[in-house]
Amino acid sequence: MENCNDIDSKIREALASDNATHFDPRFDEQSLFAQALQLFQGRNRWFNGIVVAATLVFIGLSGYSAYQFYWAVEVKELITWASAFMLGLLFVSGMKIWAWMEMEKYSTIREIKRLELQVVRLVDQLRNQQNDR
Description:
mainly alpha; 5 helices
């Protein structure tokens, strides 16, 4: 138990250095717009672009279905346009959830890289402390 407290204190000392502000999450949180733009970078940017385009198409189809539903007279038409509207909204919801999950994935990767950098710096500081003794 004491060994764990010793490690914790060493971590606190290392993070108290002048570079600690680089690791403060308040200093590099991305805005929602920046996270959305990040979808169009990296390996899967073409697929993310297709998903965004498909989302816009389904929004348009849902709007058109709602308009047609409003002007429909027969029950069969009402059911058809209402089903098309609901299916369009289902697709839009699914694609939005997928995009939010992608944005969260990129955010998590960024945090893991920050932690890796902290561990490397901590190991370097511990080695320097041991070499000084």
